[in-house]
Amino acid sequence: MTAYGSQEMSANLTRVLMRRPGASLTSADHAKWHYGPTFDGEKAVRQYQVFASLVEKSGAEILWLEDNGDGLADAMFTHDPSLMTDHGAVILNMGKPLRVPEPALHEAAYKKAGIPILGRITSPGTVEGGDCIWLDAETLVVGRGVRTNEEGITQLAELLQPHGITVLSYDLPLWHGEDACLHLMSVMSPLSSGLALVFAPLLPAAFYQLLKEWGVAMVEAPADEFHASNGLSLNVLPVRPNEVIMVSGFPKTKAAMEAAGCTVTTFDADALCIACEGGPTCLTRPVLRRAP
Ligand SMILES: NC(=O)NCCC[C@H](N)C(=O)O
User: Fold this and answer.
1) Which residue ranges traverse the bilayer (predicted)?
2) Quick one: which of 2, 110, 187, 272 has the most CB atoms within 10 Å?
């Protein structure tokens, strides 16, 4: 099956590229990878298994990349090295130097699956998938920050423009610095086409105004849980519109989404997501999202 296509963020998750963590993660030097004090490789692998079973249970087909000990601990965050469009995959170029080899793994997986490659971002351009959010199928919003630069955004816009896609870009704050991970998806998680979970204080102001103009209803992520989770309380994965998977331990954020009509499933991820700075969306690269 070669099905692909995804120019939206919350339609039914039908096919997804994921990498099971193994030796590369369990042997990772936490200081080198900027992993926090709750990092525990073996526990992270167990927590990942629970997460993967939730994705499987949602009905999505998983295309697996395996961790064969290549040392790429962050490669489990498959959201970032490529972007899927209705016209094929865009192979991105990483802003975090330790992650530079990862896009080649995605390219090989897509070729094996018979999914066409639409194009590539090349140096000095950088774009990471976590900085890209489809507002609608013709509008991609990109966060310019430590991981995604102006040259990368220009390349991406040129690649997508012939397909009728407009790229809008906004500056992200530095927040915890160049070594930490702050993507556009760190401050906004789409829940359905008209609803998003946001941490407004870190949203680019003009992007916040655009969301209001487009009539996107915003659920505010409670600040205390956002800070306590290193921002991961906000990173939630829709498997269907208004049906999401999130990290456990943040009841106020969960309740806020439920009050907005969402069904929320949680899993424990202190050693995996909180420590490694990436949540459920970051652990998945949607290959096909299909409207219900
Ligand atoms: N899309 C995301 O926010 N991905 C999280 C990636 C975390 C990883 N440790 C990184 O620093 O790139």
Assistant:
1) none
2) 272
Q: Which of 128, 181, 232, 272 to mutate to test the pocket of ligand 1 (most atoms within 8 A of CB)?
A: 181
pLDDT digits 0-9 by tens, 192-230: 999 999 999 999 999 999 999 999 999 999 999 999 999
Q: Is 276 in the pocket of ligand 1 (CB under 6 A)?
A: yes
Spell out the domains of the chain, with CATH numbers in brackets.
12-290 (3.75.10.10)
Ligand 1 atom closest to the CA of 180, numbered from 1: 11
Quote the ipTM score: 0.98
Answer whether 135's CB lies under 8 Å from 214's CB.
Answer: yes
Q: Is 74 in the pocket of ligand 1 (CB under 6 A)?
A: yes
Per the CB < 8 A criterion, the answer to whether 160 and 85 are in contact is yes
- Output the residue whose Cα is nearest ligand 1's atom 5: 278
Ligand 1: centre distance to CA 181 (Å): 6
Taking only the tens place, the pLDDT of each residue in 116-148 is 999 999 999 999 999 999 999 999 999 999 999
Which residues of the chain, if any, have pLDDT below 50? none
- CA dihedral (193, 199, 205, 206) in degrees, to 10, reads -10
